Amino acid sequence: MKRLVSGIKPTGEPTLGNYIGALRQFVNLQNELPDTEIFVFIADLHAITTPQDKQKLKKRIREIAALYIACGLDPERVTLFIQSEVMEHAVLGYIMESTAYIGEMERMTQYKDKKRKQTEGIRTSLLTYPALMAADILLYDATVVPVGEDQRQHLELTRDLANRFNNMYGETFVVPEAYTPKVGARIKSLTEPTKKMDKSSENPKSYILLQDDLNAAKNKIRSAVTDSDSKIKFDEKNKPGISNLLMIYAALTDRSIKDIEDQYIGSTYQAFKEDLANIVYDTLKPIQEKFNEILKSKELDEILDKGREKASYIARRKMSKVYKRIGLGR
Ligand code: AMP
Ligand code: TRP
């Protein structure tokens, strides 16, 4: 049985980067891989690696769940659940900490970046977070894990840990493959197109939120930083701004960059941006409408209850195997 597993942290508001790099991939893969079971979750345990406001966290957990469905995940097809409601994640996370070396954790780029930005009160879990992420994946014998570029290193570590555990204790875990989209694994900031589009940026013009006012979102595309040349050409090194916009365009229309370049030969940045602004508008509008509908519905809780039951059943069985392999318990 093939199984896809992925998650999103309920911190900050999801951006167009999250949508293109992750959410949209889940939806595409759900349709492209009919024989693959799909598990997606809200990674709330991961959120508390940094301080969170209790009310906001609670609200965001539900919002991410609603967003998954609003973006097109079919609750009949997908097991959707909240990570913290399946206790086994934390237990296997600890087992993975007992499989990983401190040096491996300290080498993670994301940890080093976050540690640099935050000087005081860095939580231990910020360091050990990739062990929990490995647990999220290995618990379900995932074969494929769709993630954006920034998560690839964590996926490599997950593979190492699975192999190490299997060698130490006997075959227990499936070694998963990362899946990153061909276009859009790293959407850049609209104001500083060499950096990642990131909801924690201080400049709201640098990112588009899935919940942004639709006209504000259009304006952010119109005012996106581009170079002074006017050729609509993909060249990440010399023309990062327009390349990023081309990437967004291609991802949202499922067209190739080449095809879009051809369409805009002789055109202007302004005309191109106007078209892209409309594409973004048309993408966000139905998502926002559906989102508001689902958030209010009772159905959401039923979906999450069902998801928790299904995920727990698999997780419990896996953990009892892991305990046996290691020699824990009676
Ligand atoms: P996070 O919000 O950090 O939990 O990220 C959720 C998913 O979105 C992960 O798979 C990330 O790799 C992906 N992601 C986040 N930012 C971007 C971006 N700017 N471009 C593409 N993918 C992204
Ligand atoms: N660490 C991921 C992120 O920050 C979210 C995540 C947690 C995840 N557990 C996962 C993604 C397991 C894929 C599989 O984006």
The total domain count is: 2
By CATH, the architecture of the largest domain is named 3-Layer(aba) Sandwich
CATH topology of the largest domain: Rossmann fold
Q: Would you state the CATH class of the largest domain? A: Alpha Beta
Calculate Rg over CA atoms. 21 Å
Spell out the CATH superfamily of the largest domain.
HUPs
- Low-confidence parts, pLDDT < 50 over ≥5 residues? none
In terms of quaternary structure, the protein is single chain
> What's the story with the biggest beta sheet?
3 strands, parallel
- Helix content, binned percent: 40-55%
Q: Tell me, what's the shape?
A: globular
Class inferred from helices and paired strands: mainly alpha
Q: Estimate what percentage of residues fall within beta strands.
A: 5-15%
Mean pLDDT: 96
Order of helices and strands: EHEHHEHHHHEHEHHHHH
Give the strand line-up of the largest sheet.
1-2-3
Discrete helix count: 13
Helices and strands in order:
Layout: E1 2-8, H1 16-32, E2 36-42, H2 44-47, H3 54-70, E3 78-82, H4 88-97, H5 102-106, H6 109-117, H7 124-138, E4 144-146, H8 152-169, E5 177-179, H9 214-222, H10 240-253, H11 257-263, H12 269-296, H13 299-326
Parallel strand pairs: 1-2, 2-3, 4-5
The structure holds adenosine monophosphate and tryptophan.
The site of adenosine monophosphate has 16 residues, from helix 1.
